[in-house]
Amino acid sequence: MKKLLIALAICTASSTAMSRDISELSSPLMLLTPAVAQNQDAFNLNDLQREAVKNWMASMPSQRGVVEDKAVEVRAALRSAIIANESQEVLDSLAAEIGSLETQLVLMRANCVNHWRDVLNADQFEQALGLAGY
């Protein structure tokens, strides 16, 4: 009976965690750039706008990827430190680093939206938001 209760508790905790959408902020923002890049003709982008798309795609996704990869790495290090019973100082340091990386990512996404707001006209931007699911 005790094993059943423990299993039930684990399942409940897992389903609660999975039911929360922790990517709520990121999802539509992450889809905005592909919406713009894949619909340049539909948005009737001019040459200057197309050049802005090309330049953005050449650099920004890889820059964001570096920060995302580092965040994954530090989260794994924190999990390992918790399991290894590391000091509170070590845990605090890793948690602070995760917080800093997450802040960078949120601000990168905000910068992305503002970039497209500047590059596109108001109608194009609204269409892109719609395609991104926002």
How many domains? The number is: 1
What's the alpha carbon Rg, rounded to whole Å?
20 Å
Give the overall shape: elongated
CATH topology: Four Helix Bundle (Hemerythrin (Met), subunit A)
CATH class, anyone? Answer: Mainly Alpha
Q: What structural class is derived from the secondary structure elements?
A: mainly alpha
End-to-end span in angstroms? 47 Å
Measured by DSSP, the beta-strand proportion falls in under 5%
Q: Biggest sheet, open or closed, and with what strands and sense?
A: none
How many individual β-strands? Answer: 0
> Number of helix segments?
5
Please name the CATH architecture: Up-down Bundle
Any low-confidence stretches, pLDDT <50, length ≥5? 2-23
What is the averaged pLDDT score? 85
Series of secondary-structure elements, N-terminal to C-terminal: HHHHH
- Helix content bin: over 70%
Could you describe the 3D structure shown?
This protein is mainly α and 134 residues long. The chain has a single domain (24-131), classed as Four Helix Bundle (Hemerythrin (Met), subunit A). The protein contains five helices and no strands. The protein has helices at residues 2-19, 26-38, 47-83, 88-119, 122-131. Helix 2 runs parallel beside helix 4 and helix 3 packs antiparallel against helix 4. The longest helix has 37 residues, at 47-83. It starts with a helix and ends with a helix.
